[in-house]
Amino acid sequence: MRARTTAFAISGLVLAGGGAAVVVAQSSGPVARYEMRAETMSGIGGMGGQGGMAAAMSMAFGGTPKAQHMLWLDIGSSRAAADGKPKAEHFMPTGAKLGKSVLLKTPVGTPSQPGTAEFQRPKGRMLIFWGCGEHAPKGQPVVIDFSKLAAGQVPPGLFSSAVPMDRWVSPASSKTYGHWPSDDGKSARPDSSLIGPHRVSGNYSPEMAFTLGKDFMAPLNATNALQPSGSTLLRWSAVADATGYYASIIGGKQGQRGQEMTDVVWWSSSATREFGGGLSDWLAPATVAKLVTARTVMSPQTTTCTVPAEVKVAAPDFMFGTLHAYGPEESFSYPPKPADPKAKWALEWTARIRHRSTTGFLIGVAGIGDAAADVPDRPQCKPKKKGLGGLLGGALSGTLGVPSAGDGC
């Protein structure tokens, strides 16, 4: 993850053009930066979120879990609290249903302890596929043999370099940092709303006030169905405000004993070989528009994608899918930009909120994320034997950032 500089512009920059020098307005700061990330999580993915227990209970009794609203808040400042006790809180509209405010907690550093766990080198191979279509084109899959890699080394070319992670705020880029959720026992609810006035106040940052006009996105409802060719058709209902869609699948093939996977399979909906990186992040609408043009991200008008038959052949025992709908962004700053282009712009604070909607599903398994009436029914299937199991444990799960799951079809 790249730390981003706290300055938005270089003071006193001079550009040469047309034989004349153009002086760009000087700007400094901001003193504080605030970042909000709002996600609507449906399907299996919702079970691991801030409302995961309710979703798990719903599935346990044969129901379809409600989509969960999840919210992450981060504040970073170039100042320190005068008394050495940093405190900040976010006051939200009543529709958020989070009480009077939520506390943005500053992490307290603790001495690191030497690790005692023994590193286990990933075994087997990783097979990489990408692109929508009945069959994988020539040159796929790319095969990575884990036995030929040094311990802890990330497979070369595995992650996208064209879509970097975009983070304004982090402990590394801030003199004082605060975040939420914390240990206050609060979390966003399925009926929480963000629309309305917001205020962020603290003893190490200027007070911020802004009004949000965009709410949590609608949930994604995705289905999958095996086709006569052996490919898998993914379908989903369109989501309002979506700027683009991206799907990925992680799967595997068991060994003879049924205890370990001999092959890890990773598929991306990108028409180009792009994996990981910012594709699993909250991307800005302008960034998504460029990725749609490059065919890395599917357009907001797209509602289907066919997973090549070769992916299912390579991963017969388990396939877990994720679908992202990237959404809108709202940005704020204070004070307003001066009308005089030569005037100095001393920013006190900036704030932004980005949205996305995400769903998780098992390929070949019905009943997850099937709430939308305009999504066709899926064929039933019989559960396979033990699924992913320990495939993504240890070093590999940390590398991929993909949750383990149970039995599949």
What would you say this structure looks like, in words?
Helix content is 8%, strand content 32%. It has 4 helices and 20 strands. The strands form 5 sheets. It has a 9-stranded mixed sheet. A 4-stranded antiparallel sheet has the order 7-6-11-12, with no helix packed on it. Strands 13-14-17 form a 3-stranded antiparallel sheet. Strand 15 (244-254) and strand 16 (261-268) form a beta hairpin. Residues 174-195 are annotated as: Disordered.
What is the CA-atom radius of gyration, in angstroms? 23 Å
The general outline is: elongated
Largest beta-sheet characterization: 9 strands, mixed
Cα(first) to Cα(last) distance is: 35 Å
Write the layout of secondary structure elements.
Layout lengths: L13 E4 L2 E4 L3 E2 L3 E12 L8 H9 L7 E10 L10 E4 L9 E3 L21 E6 L11 E4 L30 E5 L15 E7 L5 E5 L9 E5 L5 E5 L7 E11 L6 E8 L16 H9 L10 E4 L1 H6 L3 E17 L10 E2 L2 E14 L31 H7 L9
Parallel strand pairs: 3-19, 4-20, 8-16
Antiparallel strand pairs: 1-2, 4-5, 5-10, 6-7, 6-11, 8-9, 11-12, 13-14, 14-17, 15-16, 15-18, 18-20
